[in-house]
Amino acid sequence: MINSDPATGEVSTQQEAEVNAILRSGARGAVVLAGIATAIVVAIWFAFYLLVFVPRVIPP
Amino acid sequence: MSHLSTSDEGADRGERTERHWATAAVMILALMVVVATFAALYHGAMPQSRVETADPRTLHLGGEFIESNLGSALEPDGAVIVRFIGQQYSFTPSCILVPTDTPITFRTTSADVVHGFLIDGTNINLMLVPGYVSSLGARFETPSERLMPCHEFCSVGHEGMWGRIKIIDKAAFSRMAAERRRLSCVD
Amino acid sequence: MWTSRRLVLAHLWFAFGSFGAALPLGEWQMFIRSPLHAWISDPEWYYRSVTAHGTTMAYVFPTLVAMGFGYFVTEHALQRPMVGLRWAWAGLALVAVGTVMAIVPVALGLASVLYTFYPPLIGNPFYYIGVVLVVVGSWVWVALMSINMYRWKRDNPGAPVPFPMFATVAGSYLWAWTAVGAALELLFQIIPVALGWRSTIDAGLARVFFSWTLHAIVYFWLMPAYIAYYTIVPRAIGGRLFSDTMGRIAFILFLVVAMPIGIHHAFEDPQIGSGFKYLHSVFTALVALPTVLTVFTICASVEIAGRLRGGKGVLGWLAALPWRNPIMLGAALSFVMLGFGGAGGLINMSYQLNATVHNTQWITGHFHLIFAGAIVIMYFVIAYDIWPHLTGRALDSFDLMRAQLWTWFLGMIVLTFPWHWVGILGMPRRMAFYDYTDPAIAAQAASVTMSVVGGAILVLSGVLFLVVLARGQTAPRTEPATYRFSVAVRPPRTLPAALNGFGLWLGLMVGLTIVNYGFPIAHSLVTPGTAVPAVKVGERW
Description:
The complex is a heterotrimer. Chain B is α+β, with helices and mostly antiparallel strands.
């Protein structure tokens, strides 16, 4: 296994408290990161539709 | 495994966020489906709705795809039907002639193995499967000449299988169609 | 306790060995059809290479990775010796025999039909029989995954099946069912013709059967990578899995919806009507959902690790992550490729948009980016993580691992981005030669050359990967700690049957298959006159 610290075998009470605190404030980082990623993917789709597909429906 | 688990409040908050995310994901995917559906209906290049068959062994003997019937045919209603076949390793006719500003239907099949073609710079893209007739509607507005490669592996000569399509002015096409039943630009 | 160590090692060495052999073939192909090389004189060499590269990379390499990793998960997630060890070795033997049986005719030029083997092109029967044996060997693995999970459930009534095993079994069922399509095509259509028992074949029906397999097989390939996202990455970086439940739901969605959508590979085919094509397009949108869920769950899991390491701010925790950890690096690079590859996939699924790119080099670029890129990089990550547990020796060339992962990523971008572009320019697939002096094609030359450079970087990266593993064989012996998987934020104490077993989902999967494939298959079967003469390839019969 390749493990970064904290490489604890058992989950400690202290870590539980920290994880609790992180979760209570919501996964806002993940929402932003995954949201940006998804937005880029959707943008690529629309870019293809508008810039590649549509102009070729009636070819210039 | 640990006996401890995160307090319910934290985990519940997490689950709510996951559900919101899932809802947003479903809506985004639904939006794409709607736009794609719109594209199909509005831009009108729907794939064929029916399945038709043709026997590759007798294409040259009788029926729609005999050699004298291949090429572009001007129909009484002004539309054009382009009939061609694919075989190892060319299309017949190898140069297809079509007019601008006209509803065109490509009707095609294979005489041997699976082929396919696309027309460069367009969304026209179709497979030729022996045993079946492929059919697709199209329309062109400006005269041009375009490449029409075979794009499916059909064995060792595949890389040499390139057709062409020539789009000419509607009036010029009509004049030619008055002289000959079936048109092509094979010279 | 750990009885399948040598079994897993054998699977993975075979997998990575075959990968190492097939990889340079791919680069040779890229080079030989690029402006950098003149006409190849005998194009049959090219198609022979494409058949060998595709067959190995699609049917042999990922199957062995899934099997080996599956046996690893069985013992380490269920924490007991696996049942059926000898059967497992027999399954591996079948895969080995099948691989050799298939590759020999290909190498001799008797089966240059490509891994998609579109009839009525027909090659030597041993190619197809070899592929069938590989699949049968993998079905032994499917049975063992299932048996081991159900024995554990019987011995642990009411307990939640450990998530890594749940996901692995889901993947195995998906594979078993999706392989049926190609199996029907091979057993009832192609092999009888290849053996000379019949002389005609319904090419359209064969394509429908193959499409049954062709989409979900990529989800089978994806399973080890996604299992690693959920069960290895959070642990490796010192975090927690954000949601065990969402993970199970994602794998259940894959099981049910990955399969009955294959007709999006046949949007331009004449043997299927537009109604079913549209139906498959809509269902394909549904299979994007578990990936979108996964992206969030894994980002959230990684965020926990980042904040535990002191990261602050909405995105500031990204800087706190252990970027020197090859698992962190590999997963992040995988996600970037998953994003771009996924965008391409969404375009391909969108019915009419598919016609713009079908059978152009966009398609080849797409599946290299998503499979060879996002998925295979996770195969490397899995290998790096579990190798010491297989060999009992340290694997600590971390600099080399990071270099290998970076070169795989960069090589893949340089290979595939220009590849997508030439597809948009209209470059057709599967040609041994292109006349770049033709003004209509000249614009493609620069991009193709860039892809050759990308491929060369990948070959280097592949060599680095094998070097890291080889070094592991001679490193000092260690006693690795007991292998662990990631721990969920809220590990389930009990689970509803629907999240702990597969009866309902298998029923849905079969039902959806009947709805989505029943009519197209039946229609081809009852329509007369669709069987066409076989066209045999290869010089000697």
